[in-house]
Structure formats: structure tokens, C-alpha cells
Amino acid sequence: MQISETKNDGLARSYAVTIPASEIESRISAEVKRIAPQVRMPGFRPGKVPANLVKKMHGEAIHADILNKTVRESVDKVMAENKLRPAMQPAVSLGEDYEQGKDAEVTVDLEVLPEIETPSTDGIKLEKLVVPVSDDEVMEAVEKIAGQQKSFKAAAKTKKAAEGDQLIIDFVGKLDGVEFEGGKAEDAALEIGSGRFIPGFEEQLIGAKTGEEKTITVTFPEDYPAEQLKGKEATFDITVKEVKVPTETKVDEEFAKNLGLDSLDKLKELLRGQVEQETAGLTRTQMKRQLLDQLAAGHDFPVPPAMVDAEFQQIWAQLEQEAAREEDPEAAMKEIEAEKDDYKRIAERRVRLGLLLSEIGQKNGVEVSQQEMQMLIQQAAQQYRPEDRQRFVEYVQSEPMAAAQLRAPLYEDKVVDFLFDKAEVTTREVTKEELQAAIEADEGEEAAKPAAKKKAPAKKAAAKKDDDAAEEKPAAKKAPAKKPAAKKADDAEAEAKPAAKKAPAKKTAAKKADDAADEKPAAKKAPAKKAPAKKPAAKAE
């Protein structure tokens, strides 16, 4: 096997590898000899099939397998002999004119990691802004949940039902005067204006009173899930058993128990922990920005273009997804396109910081344990269908690059924690507003640096994304399991307002991307679960 370097330009390397035909044929012959005893062929005793017949039967498959193995070994040899640290998977190609019996001409193209002088971990000074959680903030969180827990009380029998009232009704649905299956219910709760029932159903009950009986006519939507009801006109005989009006939820021990907790104090304790966790995340973000800025300030080495491009493509894909969700996707994309150079710069800074943190970690013995790696693999596998999970686990275990990609966010976090421990940290108590203002001030300073060519006014644009370089990449962090009280509140809100689906104030696509650090791990935050439609008259949800 002959290896020669054909390119050495910056971080780019190319090698030409010649694998002699004789070496390939020798390996094929050895493989034929190895498998011959296992081959069965009519007319021959087991293990007595001649090698030439084995080769005739399985030659193509054996040749392909041997060629692949030999090429892989040649790439490994290129790496070892030249002491290369590839930035990404090398591009390996076999000469187009190759055929069995000829020498195999292989080309290996790659980019190598730059030589980095390990940054000193001495002299790092950080300010830790902490936000004490007050009793008022905890009570505000309690009241927010209470506000989401809609409750109703009985109204006077003379009360006419209005928008927002709840009716307890019996109903019987009919098609052409004949009851249809599943079209009957007793003591069904219906909130007027919730949109849970098919169009026209709730509206016709406005003005109804307790004890009233009435028949309404509705048309099922064309996309209704029950095939026999799609687009059909139906009547419903309705008895209004009770009219209820909304009432404020009282914050007391009973309220906490309805959320599945032992007491109101337990609820407050739980919510205090959630608020503290939220502010601790902001504190970490602000500290990490200080740390990354100090690291970036003293290092400006070349980074592998392929790594920068891969990082940029990841950023760009996220931006395109966010733009597609905007009210005017075309305008959102134009806005993003205008900042394309900024996002390329962000990608480069991310890669540089990632390499710096990796170098610091390696030199200081920071590691991701086998147990931690197994947990990462199992967590990632949960994103796949049950029948595909084992295949994913096996893939990660057999592909070093896939394993490295999965390990990177946790490794980076551990390096950051190591640097936090080494740093001289001064603590200062601030309000939540002051902490957020400090984060925004950091964004403004970064945007004002010469490298940032554009700054969008009223936006946390490229600068924030840049500052969050490493904070965003570990966005694979699994969001903490939702606490029982918060989850139950979400479920209650979904039950009470399943059709409301009120969207939060729209962010521009660029701003959303800037907030990736918060959105990504919960990237995947599941929406509050909606109660299934229990009645055929209810909308398909």
C-alpha cells in the first residue's frame, strides 16, 4: 500500500492511496478459504466444496466486502502515519475506472483540527448575578395556576346562558329522525364559546335556561372523523339541566389538594423551586457569556471551513423553520437573508469556542463517563418509535462520529462547570429585571463589535445567538420533567379551553432563533394535553 500527500493547504489535506491488486486478491483468497468449510452445495459433502466454486458462487460479495474493509484500513493508516486529527469524517473516493484485478486508487480528502495553544484557566473573573425568590413571586405563580383553573358555580334558574357560561345537558342526536350510534350523552358539561362542539352547536344554546328543552339543527363538518356523519345535517334534542357561571378559584388547601399535592405549603414549595430553577438558568447564561467572551477575546485561530459550514447549515435550517411559522414567511425570510453574513460569523465563533472548550477539557481530564453516555443514548432513543430504538442505540455504539455528536453538549457543559469552579466569582443579588437587563446589555455590546456588520434594532439578533454559542449547542439538554402542579394546571386549561389554542405573542423568526437556548431542549416541549372528545358532537381535536 502506497500513500502520498497531494494537498497541504491550511487545514485542508488530501492523500492518494494505492492498494495493489495483489493485496486485494490475497485477502479474497484468504476469505474464500475461511468460509469454504461452511458452504453447502448439492453434490458435495459438507466442507468439501472446491475453493474455485465457492469463489464463483460468492466472489462478487466477497470482493465488495474485502474492498470496503481494505479501503477503511487504508484511511486509518493515513490518519495514523500522518498523526492527523480530522475535523469531520474524511471524504473517501475510489477511482471510477476501478475493476477487480486492478490496483485500487483511493483519494482521501479531509480537514484537520488546528493546533491550539491550551488557554490558561487562571485569572478568569466572573460576576454571578443571583435573584432571590420572594414570597410575592411565589404567590404570583400560585395565582397564575389558579387563574388557569376555571371553575363554575350554579346560577339562578332564571339565568339565561351567555358566552362563557357552562351548561350541564342531556342530548340525543338524530339523522333523519333516527338516533345514531354514539350521539347520546347525559350530564355533559358544555362551555359556550369553547369551540369544543361542532360549529353551530354551542351558539344555539345561548339564552337557554335551567329546565329548558329544545331541539337544534347542525351540520357536521366535512372533515369530521366519523365517516357516517361527515357533512350530514343532524338534529339534537337537548335538555338543559343546569346553567353555571364562571367563578374565581379560591387559593386554599382544597385547591392544592385538587392539584394532587398534600397542602398549599407544598404547592408553594414546588413553585418556589421552579422559579429558582428558572432564574438559575438566567444566571448561568449570563455567567457563561462572560466566560465565553473572555475565552474568545484571546484566541483567533483558523477553524475548519467544513465544521463552520455544518454549523451554519444547522443555524440556517432552524431559522427557515421559524420563518415558515410566521404570519408572513416571505418577509421573515427576507429579514433573515439580510443577516446571513452575521449568522456565518456566529457559526465560526461557535466552532472556535467549541474547539477551545474541547482543548481545555482534554488537557484537564474532563470526561463523560460510560454511565452518563448510556443515559444520553437512552434519552435520545426515546425520540424514536419503540421498534426503532434498539437500532438507534446500536448505530450510536458503532459510529464514533454519531457518539461524539451526542456526547458533545454534555461534555461542553462539564468543561464550563470546570471553568466556573476555577474562576474567581463574585456574587451580587439583583432583581430578575436587572438580570435580564444585564443579559441584554451583553447582547448590545457584542452587536456593537466591529465583526457584527448588522444590528437589527428592536431585536436580540445575531449578537445574542453569538453570545449563546455554546449555550445553544447543548440545547439537546432534556427539559426537566414537568412538575405535577404545573402539569395539572396545563391539563386543566386545556380541558377548559380546548379550542382556544391562544398563541403567544409572535416573535420574529430571527428573535426566535436567538432564543434557541431556551426553546430547543424543550424543543420539544409537548403542548398541554387536550381532553379527548367524549361526544360525537364534539369537534375532532
TrEMBL record:
InterPro entries: PPIase_dom_sf (IPR046357), PPIase_FKBP_dom (IPR001179), Trig_fac (IPR005215), Trigger_fac_C (IPR008880), Trigger_fac_C_sf (IPR037041), Trigger_fac_ribosome-bd_bac (IPR008881), Trigger_fac_ribosome-bd_sf (IPR036611), Trigger_fact/SurA_dom_sf (IPR027304). Keywords: Cell cycle, Cell division, Chaperone, Cytoplasm, Isomerase, Rotamase. Residues 436-541 are annotated as: Disordered. This is Trigger factor. It comes from Croceicoccus naphthovorans. GO terms for molecular function: peptidyl-prolyl cis-trans isomerase activity; protein folding chaperone; ribosome binding. GO terms for cellular component: cytoplasm. The lineage of its organism: Bacteria, Pseudomonadati, Pseudomonadota, Alphaproteobacteria, Sphingomonadales. Pfam families: FKBP_C (PF00254), Trigger_C (PF05698), Trigger_N (PF05697). Belongs to the FKBP-type PPIase family. Tig subfamily. It catalyses: [protein]-peptidylproline (omega=180) = [protein]-peptidylproline (omega=0). Involved in protein export. Acts as a chaperone by maintaining the newly synthesized protein in an open conformation. Functions as a peptidyl-prolyl cis-trans isomerase. Residues 451-462, 499-510, 526-541 have a biased composition (Basic residues). Residues 463-475, 487-498, 511-522 have a biased composition (Basic and acidic residues). Consists of 3 domains; the N-terminus binds the ribosome, the middle domain has PPIase activity, while the C-terminus has intrinsic chaperone activity on its own. Its EC number is 5.2.1.8. It is found in: Cytoplasm. One of its GO terms (biological process) is protein transport.
